[in-house]
Amino acid sequence: MHFPGDKFREECGVFGVFGHPEAANLTYLGLYSLQHRGQEGAGICSCSGKQFNLEKSIGLVADIFNERRLKRLPGYSAIGHNRYSTAGGSNPKNVQPIVANFSLGQLAIAHNGNLVNAMELRKELEDEGAIFQSSSDSEVFIHLIAHSRDGDLKERLVNAVEKVAGSYSMVLLTEKELIALRDPHGIRPLALGQVDGAYVVASETCAFDLIGASYIRDIEPGEMLIINANGLNSTRAVASPQRAFCIFEYIYFARPDSLIFGGHNVNTVRKAFGKQLAIEHPVDADIVIPVPDSGVPSAIGYAEQSGIPFDFGLIRNHYIGRTFIEPKQTIRHFGVKIKLNPIRDLLEGKRVVVVDDSIVRGTTSKKIVKMIRESGGAREVHMKISSPPTIGPCFYGIDTPTRQELIAFSHNVEEIRRYTTADSLAYLSIEGIMKNLPNPDDFCAACFTNQYPIIFPGQESQLELLF
Ligand code: AMP
Q1: In this structure, what is the dihedral angle of CA atoms 439, 443, 448, 450, given to the nearest 10 degrees?
Q2: How confident is the model at residue 228 (pLDDT cuts 50, 70, 90)?
Q3: Is the Cβ–Cβ distance between 46 and 28 less than 8 Å?
């Protein structure tokens, strides 16, 4: 479902390569480094001459692909996709890339983003006789291209782009080309790189680092970049009057080693948020600790600015698989302890500043405060959040719950503090975050401001999105 108030789950990672003898292997490595963008399923489609080869399934990249499977993906071009885990179970049919045959030949698509008018378009297409295989937005795109009657693929893509609203950073593969496309607001990142003379496209540049590719530039908002044997051909698929880069990519989602939204390093921006947090909300304390991993750069920033020593007071178990089963009887409920455990030696008797990137429902913070106090033996726990209160769900691809489930939508800071049982709680201000963003006017901050840059179909005003 894709209506206001609904739960969205389309955050993903995409990768593409054209003109490399090891296209599938590079894509595998690219997806491996983009694993944080989606853990539900992954897939690779390669092209060898006229043949499209597709391998995809539910699970993590390293578990899905082995030598045997990669050998079944020959060719000089390939695209790949990581799909985000959903709360409501996984459907193998939604795993991408999606491959379709239509009048102009074969086409594969891998999409990161969320189309806000997917339901309307789907209904229109079904009324015209289209049969859908999956519940994913990306299939709507395929049908729009197939149903567009005139012109070559480029024209059909432009026709499709004119009909959709929302976020899409996507890679498409035909027998002769790789196409990278980014929505007019540029909501999700998409970067262009080069390795061994071949072009690569990825959601984040951390994928380039692993394969030894150099970062060239971003795919521009509204740009359609066609990569084929003649090199690069850039066209504007759609006008881009307003940019709306996702602020949450910098706060939480992207990897700290990536360069996004114009080549700015995520770690540097996150650290600056932490410094700003220390300026806005100083406190007398003995130690600054992060909630790993998302809180690490901002906690370092907070410690640097405040002069309070930094340490890793919480240790994260990185090996919890999706298949972990918590024993029901006799053994005590683990709660958050299965993931995080405090170091009592560091925390006992201390006044502890704990830095996290965001509070969504509030349940994690509550458990962490309790754990630092009870198992860690902390004397005081001061919770610092390196983003403003999250008051609005994301309709453009970040997996946030409904507005009613967002604790900051219905509670003020003092009420949230009481709920988490922290001695103090402070959020970074919206001004503070904007001040530390490169080109702040280019960002969507709807999750903090309720100012949504893209109007929904049938929606008259911003106000209608609020409830
Ligand atoms: P909550 O318990 O709902 O308040 O969750 C807050 C925690 O979830 C924080 O530690 C965040 O780092 C993390 N978080 C924030 N946004 C997301 C997201 N879209 N998906 C998964 N985790 C998130």
Answers
A1: 130
A2: very high
A3: no
Kindly state if the Cβ of 96 falls inside 6 Å of ligand 1.
Answer: no
356 lines ligand 1 (CB under 6 A): yes
Q: How many CA atoms lie within 13 A of 255 on its CB side?
A: 19
296 Cα–ligand 1 center, Å? 14
Regarding whether 134 and 61 lie in a shared domain, the answer is yes
- Give the separation between CA 70 and CA 191, rounded to whole angstroms: 24
- Which candidate in 12, 45, 394, 447 is catalytic? 12
Is residue 188 a contact partner of residue 198, using CB atoms and an 8 Å limit?
Answer: no
Q: Is the CB of 362 under 6 A from ligand 1?
A: yes
Q: Are residues 88 and 124 both part of a single domain?
A: yes
The Cα 229–Cα 197 span in angstroms is 11
The answer to whether residue 444 is catalytic is no
Range of the domain at 123: 9-243
The 8 Å CB, 24+ separation contacts for 455-463 are: 455/165, 456/3, 456/4, 456/116, 456/117, 456/165, 456/395, 457/116, 457/117, 457/120, 457/165, 459/4
Report which of 400, 392, 373, 383 is spatially closest to residue 277, judged by C-alpha positions.
383
What is the identity of the amino acid at 410?
S
**pLDDT at residue 257 tops 50:** yes
Tell me the best of 358, 361, 394 to mutate to test the pocket of ligand 1, counting ligand atoms within 8 Å of each CB and taking the most: 358
Q: Does 280 share its domain with 420? A: yes
Q: Is this structure's pTM higher than 0.90?
A: yes
Q: Per residue in 326-383, pLDDT tens?
A: 666 666 667 778 889 999 999 999 999 999 999 999 999 999 999 999 999 999 999 9
Q: Is 399 near ligand 1, meaning CB less than 6 Å away?
A: yes
Residues 205 and 353 reside in one and the same domain: no
From ligand 1's centre to the CA of 447, what distance in Å?
Answer: 13
> Do residue 67 and residue 168 come from a single domain?
yes
The answer on pLDDT for 3 being more than 70 is no
Q: How many residues does the chain have?
A: 467
Mean pLDDT of the chain, nearest integer: 91
Taking the CA of residue 361 as reference, the ligand 1 atom at the shortest distance is 3
